[in-house]
Input
Amino acid sequence: MKIKDIYRKKGNFLVSLCLAAACVIVTAISAINPETYNGLAYAFPLQNPRQLLTGLFLHGSPALSPAATMGHLAFNLLLVLPFGILVEKIMGSRRFLLVTAVFWIVYIFTFYTVAFATAEAGETIYGAGISGIAFSYGTIGIYILAKLFRSDRKTLLRQVSFYLLLNIALIMLVMVNPVVAGFQSMIIHLAAIASAALFLIFCHKSVDRFLSPLP
Output
């Protein structure tokens, strides 16, 4: 089986597209009107329940340049779209949405736990981005690539898409480094990877069954 065969599988990838579109829209709103950032971002202490959702889609911050904000958004979309669609095609949209909701809950718990542990008295900590879910997609994607490699490495190594996905995965692993993204982001990224690893431990058969026709 080729990677393109998974992407061409019958069925939609609406969840992945909606997540990506929401990221672009919410980030654009904040970029156009920076005063909305604090009301959209994750905040500790929590100011409004809607921030638990909008903080997921928001990227960048008023302190970052427009280029840095675009870089933050673009990198996360590189995980949400190629890997998210790959996983959604294999799992089906309904199950993918359920798993995404679980990853989101883990992300929220991790952010507020880290914020609680590091915030000084009277300090408000803000956060934004979908990396807490995107890194989970990337981890499952790495598992899929590993299964394909183990099944038919000759076919896999002839596919351009393999090298594109592999490079994205390697960049993802680099972003775990606290020197690159900061201590709080490192914890969130590791939690995302760990939650995906737990999913694979208990539910890997749902992925393996799709790949079972491989020779």
Summary: Residues 183-211 form the longest helix (29 residues). Strands lie at 42-44, 125-127. The chain has a mean pLDDT of 94. DSSP finds eleven helices and two strands in the chain.
